[in-house]
Specification:
globular
Length: 173
């Protein structure tokens, strides 16, 4: 069974390597969906479970969602996702992460991101996809793709805000 890696684990700061064989990660994709659902998450990137490869799972959430609220939105499995374009419009929304936990669960902070992104990826069967994501789905996709590049949402915060948030994380440790 895959286990969550927390923000001090070095695997979360690595740039993940591309997936060369979709069949080789199918089992991990299924396990990641189970881990994500067990944690009431909406996205999970391979590095978060200790696999330094470029794949992720995410809920294709259409509308607004409260943190920690479960969803039955469809699941997307993305191998080697690439953000092809970003909208000039930026939106500030609250984000949390299953790998950045305080004493009572994920910690949250406002993060500015493009409102829409166009992403190209391959699915677990080798089919290629290109799609524009907006709203919550755009935020989830960007957050998870950041994980593939060794970036955490806390990296977008001011040093003062990040330090305050990390104090909560260290209390859990």
């Amino acid at each position: 069974m895959l286990t969550m890696k927390l923000c001090f684990d070095p695997v979360l700061r690595e740039v993940a390597t591309p997936v060369t064989d979709a069949a080789s990660v199918r089992g991990a994709l299924e396990e990641m969906v189970a881990v994500m659902d067990e944690q009431n998450g909406v996205g999970l990137a391979a590095p978060q479970v200790g696999i330094s490869q470029r794949f992720l799972v995410m809920r294709d959430v259409a509308g607004p969602r409260n943190p920690g609220e479960p969803t039955d939105a469809p699941i997307l499995k993305m191998l080697n996702p690439i953000i092809k374009s970003k909208s000039p419009e930026l939106v500030i929304k609250e984000e949390g992460c299953l790998s950045v936990l305080g004493p009572e669960g994920p910690v949250f902070a406002d993060v500015e991101r493009p409102a829409a992104v166009t992403i190209e990826w391959t699915d677990e069967n080798g089919a290629c996809h290109t799609r524009e994501f907006t709203g919550v789905a755009a935020r989830i996709a960007q957050h998870e793709i950041d994980h593939l590049d060794g970036i955490l949402f806390i990296d977008y915060l001011s040093s003062a805000k990040r330090e305050m948030l990390m104090r909560k994380v260290k209390k859990r440790k």
